[in-house]
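Subject line: Sequence and fold of a protein, written as structure tokens
Area: Proteins and the way their chains fold up in space.
Start of record: The labelled sequence and token lines come straight after this line.
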Amino acid sequence: MAHRIAFLGFVALAVCASLSLAAEPASLQDFCVADASGNTLMNGMACKNPAMVQASDFAFSGLHIPGNTSDAMGFRVTLVSMTQIPGLNTLRISLVRVDYAPWGIVPLHTHPRSLEVGFVTSNPGNRHITKILKKGDVFVFPVGLIHYQRNIGYGNAVAIAALSSQNPGVITIANTVFGSKPDISTDLLAKAFQVDKSAVWQLQAKF
């Protein structure tokens, strides 16, 4: 019985260890300022020598500056991640400022003044959950679900978003599916989306 309890304890510990390894590394000291000059490949970045750390490693200037929204989508993201603030390394958080032109949109993607926001739940439900946000409102996008934002007002809008990663990245669905290099097979995409190949070729030409 004692051996069985010990074995179950080991299994539980192994599961916890595997879950922790799947997440971003947690800091085991006061800070782990990213060392951009390091050559070690790891999840996150190597720590700078604490004696070399400066106040500038924890600061960023420019979030007050409006982004240029003159592109086709009408939005601009100003990212503040560990690249901009090395002191964010291992803290599992980053920040973005999103500027929207009137009717500008942030297209469907995975990784947020009136804004329409929404996300789609996973299969098989695929529920579209959406809301109109007003000044001061907060909205949460669950991790991993496809989501979007659209400025439905007639003036510019700004959103501040907190992200649960020090280096969140972004996967824009249309660009990824139809703009991959090399192309994903036309036959595969036509079957997956249940459309003619000509429709796939047209979309691939855009991206």
The radius of gyration is 22 Å. The helical segments are 2-22, 173-178, 186-193, 197-206.
